[in-house]
Amino acid sequence: MVAAGQEKVVGVWRDFARITETKKSTVTVRGFAFGRPVIDIDGGVWLVDQTRGRARVRFSQGEAVRLLPGLDLPALTSFAISPDGARYAVTVGGSIYVGQVQRRDRQAVALTKPRRLPSKPNASEVVWVSGVRLAYLDRATPSVQSVRIDGTGEIGSWPGGGQLLPKVNPVSLFATPAADAEVYLLDDAGDLWVLDRTRWVRAPIEDVTGIG
Prior knowledge:
mainly beta
């Protein structure tokens, strides 16, 4: 899996990650069972893996890589940072959890204990679509759902009705790190879909294997 920013590219394999920055050396980070990496709007790199069956989050702004305390959950199925970098959201065991990012001099130093959102219990991947709203894949339907970070305003088959994404089995969801995020969806046929306001439009690309 790969994440790309304006000046950085991050690739992860099962037991290591590589952070490559323009005109700088590559940093290698060892770990186990890495999930999709995240590059936030400030260029900070977030790496998620697991150790002893528990989730581990590390942050890099430059060459230093810092372990962030505060997240005490089993292995995650997804991890996302809000557009302003102030909050994080994760999925684990079909549930969505949200917490705050503690920073010092713009560097992330810790995560607050997350709280579980009262959303449907089948979430497999979550992204931020605004500073207060999340979108997530519901494996049971399957569909894309949406919920506010306070647990209210849940919308089924978001946005609009289920007819907007007909006969598609979504497998991955991605949103750009911006206040008005661009949202992409990958289905099991290798087709890429882009959210155009209130409808999903298939991109002219075939046989896509991943998004990030």
